[in-house]
Amino acid sequence: MPAIAAMVQGPWGGKNDGPDGDGQKGGDGGPRNPWTQPGKPSGGQKNPSAIEELLRRGRESFGQGGGGNGGGGFGGLPPRATGRALWPVAIGLVVILWVVLTSFHRVGPQERGVVTFLGKYSRTLTPGISLTMPAPFEAVTTVDVEEIRTIDIGSASAENENLVLTGDQNIIDLAYSVRWNIRNPELYLFQLSDPDASVREVAESAMRAVLASVSLDDALGAGRSAIEQQVELRMQEILDGYKSGIRIQGVAIKQADPPAAVNDAFKAVSAAQQTAQTYLNQARAAAQQVTAKAQGEAAAFDKVYEQYKLSPDVTRRRMYYETMESVLSNVDKTIVEGNNVTPYLPLPEIKRRAQAAPAAEAAASTGGQ
Predict the structure, then answer these.
(1) Distance of CA 48 to CAs 15, 25, 204, Å?
(2) Which CATH class is domain 149-257?
(3) For residues 245 and 185, is the Cβ–Cβ distance under 8 A?
(4) 227 contacts 210 by C-beta, under 8 angstroms
(5) DSSP for 249-298?
(6) How far apart are the C-alpha atoms of 111 and 144, rounded to whole Å?
(7) C-alpha distance from residue 228 to each of 157, 179, 210, 295 (Å)
(8) Which helix (H) or strand (E) holds 100?
(9) Three-class SS of residue 179?
(10) Domain positions in the chain
(11) Distance from C-alpha of 92 to C-alpha of 133, rounded to nearest angstrom
């Protein structure tokens, strides 16, 4: 019978294993209760279980027990006057600061706030004070959508030439700048990995495509404004196809010169062309003057002919007088008609002699002195 009782005995001991009937066995047999600490004697006072000991140590570590840190608070915080620790208050303050600093966001007038929920785009905040979920659940990235960004391509120095081929198989050294801003902040942040590099590459591609359809003279002079407009339109089309969220504000060509190796010769050719153009302009001006003079004379002759048809004798006599006046004004003689008057009187010669006599006297007096 004792053997059968020992065989049917459960893992927590029989009902009468201990003096109190709680399964605690005395002597050297060891404890049968798995929640009691092994190796400690079980006397008249009941020993605490392992769970109670674990809870006691946890209370001591958080400042609620009288052990390890002498009744102090969590992390060395002194207890309050009521005897309770201050660590719950400290944790509450940290939580409040975390919520306030990561949930309230100020967006400026020229900015937009892009909100992501666990890394995925959620919405866009307008200017003002906005509330979101605290980090790391929601994060806000502010983007300045009014700032005009500028990218310079090419340089004025000879070491950094930006050579471009024109439509008439000529090469020019080109330097230009591109101005752009952000139109759609969510596309700008998530569609392109490097928007600045993308804008630069698109600008170079569009500029080379446009210059491949124009001549060298247009690229160097009169066609610059048309080239800039075409490049701007082509860049906007490409970036819209990429869904980049970028708006092109303008393209400005700052330099368009031949390569440095042929720049001097090109300048000489340009100077010769300008000189030839100057001569052509002068010839055109002279031809216009001659043509205008001839047209004026023809108009005057037409008027004279109209008057001649009305009164031929008067017009003929007036024309005779005008013609003789113009002829005789260059003749060094005077003819006087009339009775008892010398037919020829050399008045111009007498006038010259009268003017020469005082001059001769003045010269003689000067030589005598």
Answers:
(1) 20, 15, 81
(2) alpha beta
(3) yes
(4) yes
(5) EEEEEEEEE--GGGHHHHHHHHHHHHHHHHHHHHHHHHHHHHHHHHHHHH
(6) 4
(7) 22, 12, 9, 46
(8) helix 87-103
(9) strand
(10) 47-80, 102-144, 149-257
(11) 18
Alpha-carbon gap, residue 295 to 289, rounded angstroms:
10
Tokens encoding 143: 């983007």
pLDDT of residue 106 exceeding 60, the answer is yes
Check: pTM over 0.70? Answer yes or no: no
Q: Pick the closest to residue 140 from 108, 176, 93 (CA basis).
A: 108
For residue 188, the surrounding DSSP H or E stretch is: helix 185-190
The DSSP code sequence of 20-68 is: SSSS---TTS----TTBPTTS---SSPPPBHHHHHHHHHHHHTT-SSST
Q: Encode pLDDT of 140-153 as tens digits.
A: 888 888 889 999 99
Q: Which of 254, 247, 236 is nearest to 148 (CA)?
A: 247
d(CA 96, CA 93): 5
Question: Are residues 75 and 67 in contact, defined by beta-carbon separation less than 8 angstroms?
Answer: no
Q: How far apart are CA 43 and CA 94, in angstroms?
A: 48
Structure-block tokens of residue 153: 């391509």
To 10 degrees, the CA torsion angle through 261, 265, 270, 273? Answer: -150
- Tens-digit pLDDT profile for residues 202-225: 999 999 999 999 988 888 877 888
